Amino acid sequence: MASTAYAVNTETSNIDEQSVDNQKLKACLNNLVQTTPFASVKDVFLQYRPTEIDPSVLESLNYQPEFDKEPWDYLASLVDEERVIDGINANEKYTNVLAKIESHYGVNRYDVLGVWGVESDFGTKLGKKDVINSLATLSCFGRRQSYFRGEYVSALKILKQGDIAKSDFKGSWAGAFGQTQFMPSTFLHLAQDFDGDNRKDLVNSQADALASTANFLKNSGYQSNQPWGYEVRLPSGVAALNDRKNKKPLSHWQGLGVTLADGSPLPNTLSSVGLFLPAGKKGPAFLVGRNFDAFYAYNASENYALAIAHLSQRIAQKNTNVNFVTAWPTDDAGLSRKESREVQESLNLLGYNVGDVDGIIGDGTRRVIQQYQADIGIKTDGKAGKKIHQRLIISTADLKKAASTNLNIDADAKNTIADPSLSLEQETIKTQSKYSLSNFTRYKTFAAVFIGLLALIMAAALVLITRKR
């Protein structure tokens, strides 16, 4: 989300459902249209004035994964093998326009690709929320109404200018839109018409969207021809604090014995860097420079900035191994989108209703995981991590094999793993035994039916022969 104004979600909001209704929205908008900021866009305000609130944006206001998730969970789905491959392909497809943007703005093409990939999966997921409706709702209910009223005015100005068609004006819950998710006020300040059609169309023009992103980074202090930073190794016993803003000369860190994560010396490509420890001293460590800070300006979250940095680096290296040299300090790391789809597929196969297999672990999937965890007698935290993924993969191995050969598995297959007294290995053995017994019983039944039919045919033939005699 390209905005320097939207802050970290540190407050809680107790929104009374009884106080949020369409009549209160109507009254609020009646007041807003009379205020000075809306005077210049009153005609557009009235033309596109919403009549109903969108309660879902108020729910999203208090849940932002970049702030609420552990870094290993947050990065797992944003920087995975699939997204790196898509980024490599995007670089090849748009190589000419990326080269021009790199030359014009002095921003490395891979850093632009990193933002594009994190924000909209390279233009494939732009958001489905009506920007005007979202901002009208947020201007009248919940936290930071003053901020969102400013964005509401900016959004109406964009419509009045004709840069974005109303039918295309869809985005995230907070009003960010386009292929690299600009907030409306940021659009008015920094959006670019790079394809020369006299419109700043961040929705349909890759050139405009990517150039606007480069312009944002440039205006956020991005330094040309410099890396964002490096993963490093800290010597044991070194007194180090997580404080990326406290930048010191590279010689300071070299003097402490800090090296790159693989043990090689720190390169002299950055004059001053700060230490970033997203998971404390036991996790990956990074020395980061001004370009990392520019990523942070795009959406005020260090996890978010690390996702952009990591993705851009892997695309540049054409390296689909997304693990850092130092592992995260957890035994239950997050899942890639492929692994998330496998979790959803497995749960559906076991008879749990996840719904669409989309690789997105939302509230619905978490509730189903909790139900599954309760059935097998383990902690019901709803976490979609490596542990639950491994358990489901092992437990459904025979089911998937059967499904691939078009066998009809018994409806009670779900019950074969619902005994909390069994270990994972015992569950698997029981599952396999039951499926073997089930198949044996099924084949025996088929044989009995076949023999019965054969006997009927022989009896009928004997009757015909007797009649002829």
Highlighted features:
single chain, 469 residues, Lysozyme, 3 domains, 5-stranded antiparallel β-sheet, 7 strands, 6% strand, globular, disordered C terminus
Strand content: 5-15%
What is the count of distinct domains?
3
SSE order, as H and E?
HHHHHHHHEHHEHHEEHEEEHHHHHHH
Q: What is the overall pLDDT average?
A: 86
Main-sheet strand order equals 4-6-7-3-5
From the N-terminal CA to the C-terminal CA, the straight-line distance is: 92 Å
Structural class: mainly alpha
Unreliable spans: 4-18, 428-469
Task: Kindly provide the radius of gyration, computed on alpha-carbon positions and rounded to a whole number of angstroms.
Answer: 29 Å
Largest sheet: 5 strands, antiparallel
Tally of alpha and pi helices: 20
Q: Would you kindly provide a written description of the structure presented here, covering whatever features stand out?
A:
By secondary structure, this protein is mainly alpha-helical. The protein is 51% helix and 6% strand. The chain has three domains: 17-219, no CATH class; 229-317, Orthogonal Bundle (Lysozyme); 337-417, no CATH class. The protein has 20 helices and seven strands. A hairpin with an 8-residue loop joins strand 6 (272-276) and strand 7 (285-288). It is globular.
